[in-house]
């Protein structure tokens, strides 16, 4: 008798015949008819998710991770159709091959039965190609339909900040409409996008997605023609490099919703944004050279990383520069470097340091091991009941119990934590810290190499602007 797992996937556009309940019902019937045990903990369901990319399906990836465990948790994965497993031939081939060759786990479609004949390989490949064609063709048809609706002034995307979705068009959100008007008014009157973001955040206002405002969030609102009654869209799809939808392919049409801003105010805002852009040359926004403390120093006010400013000569809170933090943490690189060297030396002379010990074992893997351990204990109970009810003989009971107990012992070893002697950790770390300080003082190492050394034992450095002090958090 085999142990099986079930994978169920339903995307939003599919009909009720492909619903999770109907798929599970059919899979359970198939499992029962073919002597396959299907534990509830091995039923993985992704609802409302496309099968195009495996990594975007959390339950699918959890199932693959479970299949990799030792001892092998199940022998076969049952699906309603191969299209449920994947609609991307590359994903299908990669994961099926890995499961079969490396872990001896088969993928079986309960409605598309394949024999052991070599021609079944050809049939399976044909089914996968048909599934991928359906997925691509459906995406093209949906895009074509959306573009046609948009050309007529129809709504094909979620409402922006200041609007809510009505029956056929955007409707004014009375709660946030005044905020949009305030943003335009402040900007026209000379307040920067960063200062507007700070103002909004201090008022407790959040974006459409519930996030704090940034200067780019404010700029996005200021540049969106939706607020003068228009709609915009790129018929070719989203361009990740065109954040504010200003590319040549972007089309603007008249919408059917009510505007929030008059055309004159909007055009004045566009001209001011254009003038601001002229202050930056093409390469002026490039990152500066590497520096020793890159990615390590944090703002004591908001916890954000301090990044380079003033042509790479100083550091500033990343969120402060974007308008999300209301407290400047500017400091020159030379000063913060000196402060870190002094602090490292002082900490080296301390009797005991506060060192956090990072777990090497993956939490996800540990959770899966615990799930499998619970399953094995339940199996041990079933083995005992089979003997007590006279189903198994004493010899069969001993053999089955021994097998289950071995799996339990292996899983408990995977979960158990080794005992850590903190005195040894302190002694070893002090030696490592001393060696690191000597290396960091060398002129032969690049800034990037020094950064790698610091990252190997420093989790973060908190900089407090009020008293210009730092606190270093170590780890092993």
List the helices and strands and how they pair.
Elements: E1 2-10, H1 20-33, E2 36-37, E3 43-47, H2 58-67, E4 76-79, H3 82-85, H4 89-103, E5 106-109, H5 119-151, E6 163-165, E7 170-172, H6 174-188, H7 193-202, H8 215-222, E8 230-233, E9 251-254, H9 263-277, E10 297-299, E11 306-309, E12 314-317, H10 318-322, E13 331-332, H11 333-348, E14 355-356, H12 363-388, H13 394-415, H14 422-440, H15 447-455, E15 458-464, E16 469-475
Parallel strand pairs: 1-2, 1-3, 1-4, 4-5, 10-15, 14-16
Antiparallel strand pairs: 6-7, 8-9, 11-12, 12-13, 15-16
Helix pairs in contact: 6-9, 7-8, 11-14, 12-13
Report on the architecture of this protein:
With 476 residues, the protein is α/β, with parallel strands linked by helices. It has 4 domains: 2-136, Resolvase, N-terminal catalytic domain (Rossmann fold); 163-277, Alpha-Beta Complex (Hect, E3 ligase catalytic domain fold), CATH 3.90.1750; 297-354 and 423-475, no CATH class; 363-415. It contains 15 helices and 16 strands. The chain has helices at residues 20-33, 58-67, 82-85, 89-103, 119-151, 174-188, 193-202, 215-222, 263-277, 318-322, 333-348, 363-388, 394-415, 422-440, 447-455, and strands at 2-10, 36-37, 43-47, 76-79, 106-109, 163-165, 170-172, 230-233, 251-254, 297-299, 306-309, 314-317, 331-332, 355-356, 458-464, 469-475. Strands 1, 2, 3, 4 and 5 form a 5-stranded parallel sheet that branches. α6 (174-188) packs across α9 and α11 runs antiparallel to α14 (422-440). The relative contact order is 0.07. Mean pLDDT is 80; it is low at 13-17, 281-286 and 360-365.
């Amino acid at each position: 008798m085999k142990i099986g797992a079930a994978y169920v996937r339903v995307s939003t556009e599919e009909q009720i015949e492909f619903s999770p309940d109907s798929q599970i019902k059919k899979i359970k019937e198939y499992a029962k008819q073919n002597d396959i045990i299907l534990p509830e903990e091995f039923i993985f369901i992704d609802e409302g998710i496309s099968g195009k990319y495996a990594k975007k399906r959390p339950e699918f990836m959890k199932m693959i991770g479970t299949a990799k465990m030792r001892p092998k948790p199940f022998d076969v994965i049952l699906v309603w159709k191969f299209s449920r497993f994947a609609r991307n031939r590359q994903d299908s081939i990669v994961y099926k091959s890995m499961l079969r060759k490396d872990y001896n786990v088969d993928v079986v479609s309960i409605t598309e039965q394949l024999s052991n004949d070599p021609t079944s390989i050809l049939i399976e490949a044909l089914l996968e190609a048909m599934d991928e064609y359906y997925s691509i063709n459906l995406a093209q048809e949906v895009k074509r339909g959306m573009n046609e609706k948009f050309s007529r002034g129809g709504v094909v995307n979620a409402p922006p900040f200041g609007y809510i979705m009505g029956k056929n068009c955007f409707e004014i959100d009375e709660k946030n409409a005044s905020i949009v008007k305030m943003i335009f008014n402040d900007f026209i009157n000379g307040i920067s996008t960063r200062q507007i973001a700070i103002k909004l955040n201090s008022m407790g206002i959040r974006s459409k997605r519930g996030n704090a405002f940034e200067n780019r969030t404010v700029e996005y609102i200021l540049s969106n023609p939706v607020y003068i009654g228009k709609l915009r869209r790129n018929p070719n799809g989203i361009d990740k490099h065109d954040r504010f939808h200003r590319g040549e392919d972007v089309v603007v049409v008249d919408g059917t919703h009510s505007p929030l801003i008059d055309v004159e105010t909007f055009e004045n805002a566009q001209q001011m944004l254009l003038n601001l852009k002229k202050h930056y040359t093409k390469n002026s926004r490039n990152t500066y050279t590497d520096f020793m403390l890159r990615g390590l120093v944090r703002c004591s006010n908001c916890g954000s990383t301090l990044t380079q400013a003033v042509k790479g000569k100083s550091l500033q809170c990343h969120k402060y520069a974007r308008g999300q933090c209301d407290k400047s943490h500017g400091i020159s690189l030379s000063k913060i470097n000196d402060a870190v060297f002094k602090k490292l030396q002082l900490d080296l002379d301390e009797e005991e340091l506060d060192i956090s010990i990072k777990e090497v074992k993956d939490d996800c893997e540990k959770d899966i091991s615990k799930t499998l351990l619970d399953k094995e204990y339940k199996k041990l109970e079933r083995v005992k009941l089979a003997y007590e009810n006279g189903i198994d003989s004493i010899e069969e009971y001993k053999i089955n119990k021994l097998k289950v107990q071995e799996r339990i012992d292996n899983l408990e070893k995977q979960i158990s934590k080794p005992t850590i002697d903190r005195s040894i950790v302190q002694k070893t770390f002090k030696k490592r810290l001393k060696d690191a300080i000597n290396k960091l003082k060398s002129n032969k190492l690049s800034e990037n190499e020094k950064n790698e050394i610091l990252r190997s034992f420093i989790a973060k450095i908190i900089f407090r602007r009020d008293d210009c002090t730092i606190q270093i958090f170590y780890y092993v």
